[in-house]
Amino acid sequence: MKNSKQLTAIKVASISALLSGAALAQSGGTIPAVPVGSLSAYPTIVQTGTKPTLTWAATYPSVVQNYVEIIAPSTLKLKKALDVQIRVLGNGVTASSSASSNTFTWVDAEAQLSFKNASYSRIFYGKNTNINPSTVVWSRTKLQTAKDNTLRFGGRYYYNNQWATTFTTSSSGSGSNNVRTLVNGQTPPTITPMHTAPSLESFIKPYLDANGKVKIGPMDVIVFMELTHTNVNDPGYDLQDMVLLVTFTDNTASN
After folding, report:
1. 149 and 123: one domain?
2. Region for 251 from its dihedrals, namely left if φ exceeds 0, alpha if ψ lies in -120 to 50, beta otherwise
């Protein structure tokens, strides 16, 4: 039979182990999806009627929408000072090698950015083979929350010695939906589910789950661009022609 002192010690030790285990299992060294933490007590064995000293710590999840206003279809407006990094994940524009061939070659394309309502300027140019997804192509530290602190995106491809139509966040008419921003858990708006489309580019696969939903970090925003079609009901409209990843970091955060 356990006495009251033993039961107290067992309960405290069990709570501590459970919380620490939850923190380890759920965080995995990354921002957790739910609040996690740890709890410890000293001393671990106490007399009836006395209280141990409890020490606890909690890590709360960050969600990009708490820090950035996402204005459809693809404007990002900061709510507070943040660090920003942009990477290019892939360029899916291709051209057939010949009219009777099923062989395709990569085509040069350009990614553009408009910052603080300025003109769009190049942040990347090249073929898919020129892309390293770990390379940061644009960054800023501690951007302030000025009313014009916005990020907008654009792109176009270059083929047969000429530029195709430029599509941007600011495009109107038939090209107004050619640049889209999505966050973790959202589904890309294509007529054919992106994750089941036969044309799914390999560089997008790591950023979609088995159900076709976006799978990125909670402080990330992914930018999908369609540079070859404007009809959203066309099977060729797949939002894979230029894909960027925008990562925000709040270096002033504390638990």
Report:
1. yes
2. alpha
